[in-house]
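Lab notebook page, bench 4
Experiment: in silico fold of construct C2
Operator: M.H.
Input chain length: 345 residues
Purpose: comparison with the prior construct
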Amino acid sequence: MRTKFQPLIFFMLCMNFACTSNSTEHAQTTQKDTTISSTKEVLPSWNNTALKKSIIDYVTAVTKEGSADFVPVADRIATFDNDGTLWSEQPEYFQLFYALDKIKALAPAHPEWKTKQPFKAVLENNTAELMKQGEKGILQLIAVSHTGMTTEQFNTSVNQWADTAKHPVKHKLYKELVYQPMLELIQYLQANQFKVFIVSGGGIDFMRAWAENVYGIPKDQIIGSSIKMKYDYNNGDPIILKLPELDFIDDKDGKAVGIAKYIGRKPVFAAGNSDGDLQMLQWTASNSFRNFKLYVHHTDSIREWAYDRKSHIGTFDKGWDEAITKQWAIADMKTDWKIIYPFEK
C-alpha cells in the first residue's frame, strides 16, 4: 500500500543501500580539451576547455548593457541542484548517512533497538537486512531522525553532524566534499549580479543548516523537499515542530514547480547532474532570455566516482540524451576540472 510518506523516500533515501565505492560505468564525453588563452584567472579550477570559455562568453554577453543578449539584473536567476552537482553523492546521499548516524547516536537511550528492526540492522551495519525492511522500515528511521523535534533542535543536530561526521570512503567531513569548480562558478555568477538558488531534492532544513556557510548562498535562497511543520505557542516561547508528514517533493517535475512557487522567475542559468534535474533545465531552456543549461557528468573514478546511466543514485540517462540532442553544456569532471575538492588546492 502506498502511504502519504512514500515520496519522502524518493528525495532522501535510495532503496539500494549497497556501498560500492567506485562505478566504472560512464558514457562517452563530448568535451574537448581545447586550450583557451583568454580566460585569465576566472574559474581557476576549471581547465581551459571550450566549456569554460562558453560559460565566460555567456556571462559576458548577458551582463553587458547594450548587448542583444543582455539580461536585466532582476532576471539573472541561477539554480543549482545540490547532490552530485555541488557536492558528492556516493555511495549514497549524504542525508542518508546523517539519518543512520543519528539512529546510532540515539541508540543508548533505546536498548530495545538492539533486537528491533529496522534499528537492529542499522546498529549492526547489516546492509542486507536493512534492505529487507523496505519502505516501512525506512519510514521508521526517517521519523526518528528527522521529526518529532523543533526546527532549532534539528538545525543543531545537523550542524553537529556536519562538523564531525566523516565520509566512509573519502574519510573527509561531508561538507569538505564540495566541488571547488562549482564553488567558483557560484561566486562568478554572484559577482555578476546573478541571484543564485539551490533547488534540490534533498531536505530543505537539512541543507539550510550548513549550506549557507559552505556555499555562500543565503538560507532563503535554498529550496528543497520538506515535511510539514506545526506552530506551538509553547507558553510564550514559540517553537516550530517538525511532523512526520510529507509537504513537498522538490525533484523532477517538482523542481520546476518549486521554482515557480518560491522564486517566481524562470532561471536563465541552471546546473544539475541527473535525470532528477531534467525538468529544471527544460524550464530554464524555455526562458525567452538567453539561457545556459549545464550538466555535471561524473567521469572521474580516481578523484571522485564515475557513473551515469545505470547508477543506483544520480542516474544520468534521459537527461544525457536530451543534453546531447539539444547541445546543452556538459562538464566532464575528468576533463574540465583541474581539481575536484577544495582540499586539493
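Observations: The chain has one domain: 27-93+169-344. Confidence is low (pLDDT under 50) at residues 1-39.
Next step: discuss at group meeting.
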